[in-house]
From TrEMBL:
Pfam families: SOUL (PF04832)
Classification via SUPFAM superfamilies: Probable bacterial effector-binding domain
Species: Scophthalmus maximus
Listed InterPro entries: Reg_factor_effector_dom_sf, SOUL_heme-bd
Major subcellular site: cytoplasm
UniProt protein name: Heme-binding protein 1
Record flagged with keyword Signal: yes
Subunit structure: Monomer.
Molecular function per GO: heme binding
Cleaved signal peptide residues: 1-18
General function of this protein: May bind free porphyrinogens that may be present in the cell and thus facilitate removal of these potentially toxic compound. Binds with a high affinity to one molecule of heme or porphyrins. It binds metalloporphyrins, free porphyrins and N-methylprotoporphyrin with similar affinities.
Family assignment from sequence similarity: Belongs to the HEBP family.
Length: 212
């Protein structure tokens, strides 16, 4: 029984570590968020993400761009050593923002998150010293994904999200409509060949078809 328990524990550790690591998805970082592709169509990709640990911060703003700028430096300060261990943490990708569905000129709460490296997916990460920064886990989820290049701004995100929503509505796919995720894979210093994504979280079984 003890041997069996130990084996189960080892498998759980290996499964958790497998959510973050090195793959072809890692564009500029050693480690990135890993996923399973459920299906790919001409309009979008459907992925499954396991539960994973992030360091995050919230910012209330009218615009995603302003919220992202303020929140980014708060999190960068944390991984630069402003934590209770004074430890520097390697940057990973993507940087993900939870974007609320709001009307024009309506304030919303934006959540920016840095993915924690594999070692902190199993071990306890350093605690933030800034009370606006916190550690949390996202649940398992299936997401509809559309990629785009250039810079992730409120306009490019809104345009891409609108195209993806239209495609999903045309095939009767169910997804969460009160928020979506914007994911960026590049350093702010990267000027060309940038990669960004919009994620819409699937509700129920994802639909793997197109409107064509």
């Amino acid at each position: 029984m003890m041997c069996l328990s130990g084996l189960v524990g080892l498998l759980l550790v290996l499964t958790t570590e497998a959510t973050v690591g090195n793959s072809s998805s890692c564009i500029e970082t050693e480690e990135c968020l890993l996923f399973d592709v459920i299906c790919t169509t001409g309009d979008f990709e459907v992925r499954h993400y396991d539960s994973v640990k992030w360091v995050s911060t919230n910012e209330t703003s009218l615009l995603m761009d302003i919220a992202a700028m303020k929140a980014f430096w708060r999190l960068f300060d944390y991984i630069s050593g402003n934590n209770d261990k004074g430890k520097k943490i390697e940057m990973t990708s993507p940087v993900v923002m939870r974007i609320p569905q709001t009307d024009f000129f309506e304030y919303g709460v934006f959540t920016l998150s840095f993915l924690l490296p594999a070692e902190y997916q199993t071990d306890i990460p350093p605690n933030p010293t800034n009370n606006l920064v916190y550690i949390h886990d996202t649940p398992d989820m299936n997401v509809y994904v559309r990629s785009y290049s250039g810079w992730m701004t409120c306009l490019s995100d809104k345009y891409t999200k609108g195209r993806l929503s239209t495609d999903l509505d045309s095939i009767g796919a169910n997804y969460k409509k009160d928020f979506h995720y914007g994911a960026g894979y590049n350093s702010p210093k990267t000027l060309f060949n940038r990669h960004n994504e919009v994620w819409l979280v699937a509700e129920g079984e994802p639909v793997c078809s197109t409107s064509d």
